[in-house]
Specification:
With about 350 residues, this protein is of the alpha+beta class. About 35% of the residues lie in helices and about 25% in strands.
Length: about 350
């Protein structure tokens, strides 16, 4: 790393002793190709789009669907790639406090949310109901929602009447109130929270939204002193990691404070199993357990867009290789400076 300014940018210089090489058209080249690389941190979305539109950034890795059409019109030379986000949108419900220690209440809060409406109306169809904790990219392990047991499918079905019935059975016929923390830094989450609150009003539940700055928000989860509700974005990394750190007791990312011995035993069995097909079936089974127990309100996963200019070579919108590691991608990119100048940038 050559230069760093917190909240602004980080610049990296080429390491002449880097070990890896790559072959293009049968010829081997030493990596990385670029002499330096700057990663910008820009919080304001309109500023992000301005930097991309004017060619002051070469690649933008996350563009929300709502901005795509305008950017295509104002910067028609941009290249695009659409992909399902490798993160889950979750409202964690603390299983260690009332009323969320009761699975009926947790299921009710899932059923009260019209998740398909969020995809259709808020995201313009750019989303999937089930892409967490296992991502559809995990071929041979991921199980589509239509193939899940009925008790799992019910968690994703919009059914406010059944939600009210479950609340009454759990001893909350008139509903209840709870606080839900959200990071003010996440525009999508800030859009989702009022929608969730409106859905919950329909079943008699009042959700008090508590926006927080990132440091305090993240620190609350790490210290396990966060509110009963905690709106979070949880990355996958890989199949076993997504399951482990979302559902096992003691893990900092288990904001739901979920603890089910059946799940824990199953995960350990998956770690111990050497046969790939048997391991995949164990992972599918414990995923069903975690989804049916509803420690989180499982929100849809959005599609995101990546944009880059034609002068970015040897790149096709790849985001990472392996466990969310961008280095192997960045090291193989180069910039055609002549083309960039020819295009007027």
């Amino acid at each position: 790393i050559a230069n760093y300014t917190q909240g602004n940018f980080a610049t990296y210089e080429r390491n002449p002793d880097y070990w890896d090489k790559t072959a293009i058209d049968g010829k081997e080249y030493q990596l990385p190709f670029v002499d330096s690389f700057t990663y910008r941190t820009v919080k304001d979305e309109s500023t992000q789009h301005s930097l991309l539109r004017t060619g002051r950034v070469d690649i933008m890795e996350l563009v929300r669907w709502s901005a795509v059409e305008e950017l295509k019109k104002s910067a028609p030379d941009l290249q695009w790639r659409r992909a399902l986000m490798h993160s889950g949108y979750l409202l964690a419900l603390r299983n260690d406090v009332k009323p969320f220690d009761d699975v009926r209440v947790r299921r009710a809060l899932n059923m009260a949310v019209n998740k398909q409406e969020i995809i259709d109306a808020l995201w313009g169809g750019n989303g999937e109901l089930l892409a967490f904790p296992l991502h559809p990219d995990y071929l041979g392990i991921y199980e589509p929602l239509k193939d899940m047991p009925e008790e799992v499918q019910a968690v994703f079905k919009y059914d406010p009447d059944e939600a009210k019935k479950l609340l009454a059975e759990a001893g909350y016929p008139k509903g209840f109130k709870f606080q839900a923390q959200v990071c003010a830094c996440n525009a999508t989450h800030m859009e989702l929270m009022p929608l969730l609150a409106a859905y919950y009003e329909q079943i008699g539940v009042t959700m008090e939204i508590v926006p927080m700055e990132y440091a305090a928000f993240f620190g609350a989860m790490n210290g396990k002193n966060h509110a009963a509700g905690y709106m979070m974005q949880k990355g996958h990394s890989n199949p076993t990691t997504a399951l482990r750190n979302s559902y096992t007791p003691g893990d900092p990312w288990n904001a739901a404070v979920y603890d089910n011995p059946k799940f824990n035993e199953g995960l350990q069995a998956a770690f111990d199993e050497r046969d790939n097909e048997k391991r995949a079936e164990i992972l599918r089974e414990i995923t069903r357990v975690g989804l049916a127990d509803a420690p989180y309100v499982y929100l849809p996963t959005p599609y995101i867009y990546r944009a880059w200019w034609p002068w970015v070579k040897n790149y096709d919108g790849e985001l990472f290789a392996g466990a969310v590691k961008p280095g192997p991608v960045y090291s193989r990119i180069w910039i055609d400076q002549d083309l960039k100048k020819k295009m007027g940038y």
